[in-house]
Each structure stands twice: as structure tokens, then as C-alpha cells.
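User: For my dataset I need records formatted as: sequence, then C-alpha cells, nothing else. Please produce one.
Assistant:
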Amino acid sequence: MVLDYASVQGFLRWDLVNHMVVTKSIRSRGKKTSGPNSRRSSKLSPYVEVYRQLLIKNEENDLATTLKNIQELLSFSEKIFSSSAVAETFLYFCLHGAATVWVLQNELNIPEATTYRAVKRLRSMGILVPALKITKVKNAKGGPRPTIWSLEHASTEDIAKSLRLHYKLLSPKYKVAEEIAQTILDEYVTKRQISEISYKEIVVQINGMQVPFRTPDIAELTATYLHDKGVKVWR
């Protein structure tokens, strides 16, 4: 068996989506261990498990093939995780399958130039492929049409989701709602240590600010953003 990027991506994507299952399993096996060292170890255990499962695939190989595969895995890890921006971008793709540079900028909060370099690195490694050229929105600045980049085996739904998110993040209304929602999270939810808010309170918050859009439109987008962040919105 030869270890390739596709198998690494596939396993990492599976593991990231299901990491709570792995963590629960590991914790259940180590209930009798206690102390600071065990706590530190338990935090790293899920990540150790990722590499362990990748290497277990070599059990039926001869020693030479196993060593070659381990070297490839180490080289792959070094290329990915030597840069925090490349690492964050890679893990985003493992979780979501596809994205545009604009989506990555906003979701990961990293500069445009850094995002382009990270995507270029991953593409040169054969990890990312261009999936779709996007039609520009009206009044967009010049330059080439945006591209949805994806893992080679990303689903059509992954690509469709990234397209919807790209256009949503370009919306001025969404940007305003995001700022309001973040203010509510920082000044209201976090400070009061609560996990719910009423729709009326969102409207009151918006009315107290000078926004250039209709309050109901911004309130709906703000409520959706807060819901995605784990805040219960009562209607």
C-alpha cells in the first residue's frame, strides 16, 4: 500500500468531522489516569491517533515500504504545518472540501496575499484543484474571475456550499449583520455568560445603531449568524 495525499486528506477529513468520537474513545480508555501530564497527553491523543491510524495502514507492508511511507508522511506534514497559514487553509479544506480565496480570507481572518500564497502552495503539492470559475458580481473590481478551489474528491454539494458562502460574504448587508452579531457576542452574550437572546433584543440593538438597510433584513441575517455561532434566538 502506498501512502498518497488523497489518503491523507480523506482520513484527516473523516477524523476532523468525527473527532469527538475519537476523543470520547480515548478518554474512556484512560479514565484511571490522572494528573497534569495525563491531561496534557489527553489533549494531544486525538492528533496522535490520526497519525497512528495512517501508519497502521502499513501493517502488511515490508519494512522498506513502511519506512518510505513514513518518510512521505513526515515530508507531507512538514510542507503543510511549517506555515500556520498553509496549515489553517489545509484544515479548512479538509473540513469543507471547497472554498474561494475570499471565503478563506473571511473565515480564517488572514490577509489576501497570505491566502493566495497558501492556496498556491497547496495547489503546487497537488492537494487543490480548480473546481469552478465564478461569475463576478455587479460593480466588482477588476481582475480575474474568482475560482472555487477544492480537494480532488470534493462533492458537488461542497462546491455549491462554497459558492453560496462566497456570494453571502460579498453582500454589504451580511457584513453589517456580521459586525452587529459580533458586537452582541462580545458585549452581551460573552460578558453575561449566556447562550440565548430574543429576536426583539436583536432588533433593539440594531435600532440603536445607524445602519443603511432595513432593520428586518439585518435582524434576520444577524439572528442566522448568532444561531450558527451556537446562540439560541427566541422568536
